[in-house]
Design goal:
Distance between the termini: 24 Å
Strand content: 15-25%
Strand order of the largest sheet: 3-2-1-4-5-6-7
Largest sheet: 7 strands, parallel
Radius of gyration: 17 Å
Number of helices: 9
C-alpha cells in the first residue's frame, strides 16, 4: 500500500527493539517526524543517529510524569502529534500455572503493558484534540483474545489493552481520533526469542498457517491502521494471527 504521510508526526514506544524498532524505521524512512520512547536511550541514539527526523527520549512509560513531559516536549518541537503507536511490552515469566505466578512479576507485566499504554494515550490525547485528528494503535496480542496457558500475566494484560481500546474508540469516535489495536500471534522478535522454545511451539501449533508472523507483516498492517487510509474503524482489534482468531 502506497501511503502518503505528508507532514505527519508520531510517537512510538518500545522503539529500540522489536516491533517498535521496525515501525519506527518505516515511518522515519517515509519522512515522518518520530518521537522514539524507550528505556534504553543509548540504544535509541545508536540505532537512529542517521535520521534528522528522529527524536529519541529515554524514559519509562510506567512513570506518568516522564511520559507527560516527553510528550509535551515533542509537541513543542513539532507543533502537532498525529500518531501514537504503543509497541512497548514485556512477557514476564511463562510456562507456569496461575497458582505459581509471582505477584511482583504479574504486577510488572500489568504496569508496562497496561499502565504504559494508558499513560501514553492520556498524555497524547489533549494534543490530538487540539487538531481534532489522531491515530492511536495499541499493540495487544492474540493471547488477549484466546488466552495462552502458562502466560497468565501477559494474557491478562493484553486482554486489558483490548478493553481499553474499545472504551477509548467509543469515547473519541466523533473527534477525528481513531483508536484501534492489533492482536498478533507469534511474531519473531527478540521478545519471542527470549521465551522458552516449548512455549513458542505451544503458541505456533495453534496457528492454522503453522508459522510465525514476520516483522514486515506487522509493519504493513500497523501502517494502514495509523494512516488516513483507515477512516471508518475505531475501537477495533485487528487480527494478525495466521487464522488463529477470526473475531
Amino acid at each position: 500500500m502506497n501511503i502518503q504521510w505528508g507532514n505527519k508526526t508520531a510517537v512510538i514506544t518500545g522503539a529500540a527493539r522489536g516491533l517498535g524498532f521496525a515501525l519506527s524505521n518505516r515511518l522515519l524512512d517515509a519522512g515522518v517526524k518520530v518521537a522514539l520512547f524507550d528505556r534504553d536511550l543509548e540504544e535509541l541514539e545508536k540505532k537512529f543517529s542517521k535520521y534528522e527526523n528522529a527524536f529519541p527520549y529515554g524514559l519509562d512509560i510506567v512513570e506518568s510524569l516522564e511520559v507527560k513531559n516527553a510528550m509535551n516536549d515533542f509537541y513543542t518541537k513539532v507543533s502537532r502529534i498525529d500518531i501514537l503507536a504503543n509497541c512497548a511490552g514485556i512477557v514476564g515469566k511463562t510456562g507456569i500455572r496461575s497458582h505459581e505466578v509471582d505477584f511482583d512479576d504479574f504486577d510488572e507485566v500489568m504496569k508496562v503493558n497496561v499502565l504504559g499504554s494508558f499513560n501514553t494515550s492520556k498524555a497524547v490525547l489533549p494534543h490530538m484534540l487540539k487538531k481534532n485528528y489522531g491515530r492511536i494503535l495499541h499493540v495487544a496480542s492474540i493471547s488477549g483474545k484466546d488466552g495462552n496457558a502458562g502466560m497468565l500475566a501477559y494474557s491478562t494484560s493484553k486482554a486489558a489493552v483490548i478493553g481499553m481500546t474499545k472504551v477509548q474508540g467509543k469515547e473519541y469516535a466523533e473527534s477525528g481520533i481513531l483508536i484501534n489495536a492489533i492482536a498478533p500471534a507469534v511474531i519473531r522478535t527478540q521478545m519471542v526469542e527470549d521465551i522458552p522454545e516449548e512455549q513458542v511451539k505451544y503458541m505456533t501449533d495453534k496457528i492454522p498457517m503453522k508459522r510465525c508472523g514476520t516483522m514486515e507483516e506487522f509493519v504493513e498492517m500497523a501502517c494502514f491502521i495509523i494512516s488516513d487510509a483507515n477512516s471508518f474503524t475505531t475501537g477495533f482489534t485487528y487480527d494478525l494471527s495466521g487464522g488463529r482468531a477470526l473475531y
